[in-house]
Amino acid sequence: MKTTPLPSKRFGLVSATPAEYLVRQRLGRLSFPGRGSAAWVVPGLDRVFLIPSSVQSAAFLADQITVENQGVEIGGFALWSVADPARAIEAVDFTNPVAGLARVGEQLRAVVEAAIRREVANLTLEQVLRQRAAMTDQLSDELAGVAERWGLAIAAIEIKSVQVLSNQLFENMQAKFRDTQRLASARSAMETDEAIARARAADRETAAARDLAFRVAEIEREEEARRQEIVRDQRLEEAKEAARREREVARLDSELALVRAREERQRAALAANEALLEIEETLEARRFRTEQLRAEQRERVAALDDAIARRGIETANLKDRGRLLVEALPDLFAGLKVGTVNLGDPALVAGMQALVRQIGDGGTANQK
Questions:
Q1: If you average pLDDT over residues 239-249, what whole number do you get?
Q2: What is the Cα–Cα distance from 352 to 88, expressed in whole angstroms?
Q3: Which of 22, 29, 41, 332 is least enclosed by beta carbons within 10 angstroms?
Q4: What residue spans of 337-345 are helical by DSSP H?
Q5: pLDDT at residue 343 tops 60
Q6: Contact 136, 89 (CB under 8 A)
Q7: What backbone phi and psi angles, to 5 degrees, belong to 33?
Q8: Residue 337 and residue 149: Cα distance in Å, rounded?
């Protein structure tokens, strides 16, 4: 348990440390300046108290019998501190802080031991050994009222040890515990072996499933490869067939083009023959027309020759008559005895002169 020394002075300016409450009493009235504060103390008029506020520890050790009438000893400690100096100074005399803290610790220890005895009396030995947390919670609840009345704050209550007072009972409990532990260990070993066997079986099943899945995947891959190969072969055959069809179509197109060209040439030859026939017919018609024209021309020429011959005859006859007339003119003019003939019209004169020349020319020609 921590101790706090007495204040160095009781009058004048008295100061408290940060871990102390300063309480001043003047003429019977208390004032509480607070933790770590200071106050003027007048001798004969004031009294001053320094109450430690640091955490204190109170150890406890309590023995009690359980429901099965088995003795146990429980040891531990409680951590507490002064939280309300007004209530604390009313419950405990802090003229000497060390003695005041000791009295509070003793009272808390007695209260905790009494509470432990009441608690253990209603529990079995197994519960006492196993349920320490429940016990500490119950002790904290029971001490809360006491701590509030004394102006204290319980920081923690901890049970450090629980000891069975009967060595034989403890040995029996240990034997039972050891047997239980041995049984649990054997059961655990069996369960472990079974778990290992299950795990190994599961591993084997997993491996078998994995191998099966791998084989199935391998078969699927092989089937997929075969399908792809079949598809490639089909596509290759289709491409070859398409190429063959294209070549066949190209060949047929070429033959069709040749046939069409041949037909076109034949049509052109027929057209040329027809044109030649038409030309020949036209030439024949023209030859026929030419022959007709030539015949007509020959007929016209013959007619013209006949006409010319008749004109020649007529002209010859006219010349003979003119020559006769001319030959008779001198005699005629001589018989007329006219010295000058006045024809009057110049055109008539010119005509007569031409006639005389022609007659003269004709006569000359005939003489020749």
A1: 87
A2: 202
A3: 29
A4: none
A5: no
A6: no
A7: -60, -30
A8: 219
Residue 138 near residue 117, CB atoms below 8 Å? no
Domain ranges of the chain: 12-165, 322-338+348-367
Region of residue 64 (phi > 0: left; psi between -120 and 50: alpha; otherwise: beta): beta
Question: Between 310 and 101, where is the model more confident?
Answer: 101
Please answer whether residues 48 and 7 qualify as being in contact, where contact means their C-beta atoms are separated by less than 8 angstroms.
yes
**Which of 185, 166, 189, 188 lies closest to 177, judged by CA?**
185
pTM score of the predicted model: 0.41
- Please check the confidence at residue 325 and state whether its pLDDT lies above 50: yes
Locate tokens 């099966």: which residue? 212
pLDDT tens digits, 350-360? 666 666 566 55
CA angle (68, 71, 76) in 5-degree steps: 125
As its CATH architecture, domain 12-165 has 2-Layer Sandwich (3.30)
Residues in the chain: 368
Number of other CB atoms surrounding residue 50 within 10 Å? 21
pLDDT for residue 8 is more than 50? no
Q: How far apart are the first and last CA of the chain?
A: 205
Alpha carbons within 13 angstroms on the beta-carbon side of residue 60 total 27
- Write down the H helix ranges in the chain: 85-91, 97-121, 125-130, 132-150, 167-336, 346-367
Q: How many other C-beta atoms lie within 10 A of the C-beta of residue 332?
A: 10
Segment 127-132 long-range contacts (CB within 8 Å, at least 24 positions apart): 127/66, 128/66, 128/72, 128/74, 128/162, 129/162, 132/159, 132/162
Tokens representing residue 161 in the block: 């040890």
pLDDT at residue number 33 = 74
Pairing of the two strands 56-65 and 29-35: unpaired
pLDDT above 50 for 338: no
Say which amino acid occupies 167. Answer: N
